[in-house]
Amino acid sequence: MGLRRACWRIRSRLAVPVGGRHGRVRGYASRAERLEKQRRLHQLTARLESVEVHIAQGRVSVVRGGRRLLRTRQHLGEAGLTEPQWRRCWEAARWFVTADGEADKPLGNETIRVHPEEGWLELKLPLPLAHLANRPHGRYRLSCPVRFSYRAEAWAAVASLSPKLREALLLVELFGLTYREAAEVLRVPEGTVKSRVFQARLRLAAWRSEEGRAGEL
User: Fold this and answer.
1) Percent of the chain, pLDDT > 70?
2) Residue 109: which residues within 8 A CB-CB, separation 6 or more?
3) Which residue, 112, 129, 130, is CA-closest to 121?
4) pLDDT (tens digit, 9 = 90+) per residue, 35-57?
5) How far apart are CA 160 and CA 157, in angstroms?
6) Of 171, 159, 160, whose CA–CA distance to 197 is shortest?
7) Are 179 and 163 in contact (CB under 8 A)?
8) For the segment 184-211, what is each residue's pLDDT rounded down to a tens digit?
């Protein structure tokens, strides 16, 4: 949607003579600026065509906080990260799919739904992908069954954590990120990540104690 909007804005201004005005749309101030925007439009149009081809093929790359991570890549020194450390943050963000829980919604969430008994998982598709939905209201249900037969109780315990605690714990424990790297992905101070991971570990330790499952998780 951002690429389409950018192309539309440039085309609208290109349709107005240099220095002119048509309603609320102003033309570019000089021929040099107009020429630069024509080149920019050509670049954006090529990118948009590539994205639309990927969408039509069902190939969509979504990275949580991708724009911010890209800016960080261009200023590694300011972020205090090396290129390998940044790459770990990027890869973790690509694999990390999450949606905050909603207490009043069926199965806990309107974006990602998991039914542990029936064994299915549904995702709410964004508008550009709504035509790929195989369920009502723009949802897509995975064709394969979703089971948590291995350590299902442990999964339930992690799922019971608040979204903020769960995100921090998974990034550090599952993806192996350092506290600094996890802070970069979550866009919070490093101390906040340490606190969330500590609280998550405390709650899981209490679960292990209550269930008599020492050593799990």
Assistant:
1) 80
2) 99, 100, 101, 102
3) 112
4) 999 999 999 999 888 888 877 77
5) 5
6) 171
7) no
8) 888 889 999 999 999 988 888 887 776 5
Amino acid in position 161: L
Q: In DSSP terms, which residues pair with 25 in a beta bridge?
A: 22
For 30, residues 6+ apart whose C-beta sits below 8 A from its C-beta are: 18, 19
> Alpha carbon of 183 to those of 25, 37, 82, 152, 180: distances in Å?
42, 37, 15, 28, 5
Pairing of strands 139-141, 120-124: antiparallel
Residue 114 Ramachandran class (φ > 0 left, ψ -120 to 50 alpha, else beta): beta
Domain boundaries, the chain: 2-56, 99-147
Predicted model pTM: 0.45
HSE-up of 33 (CA within 13 Å, CB side)? 11
| Position 61 pLDDT exceeds 80 | no
Tokens of 198: 């500590």
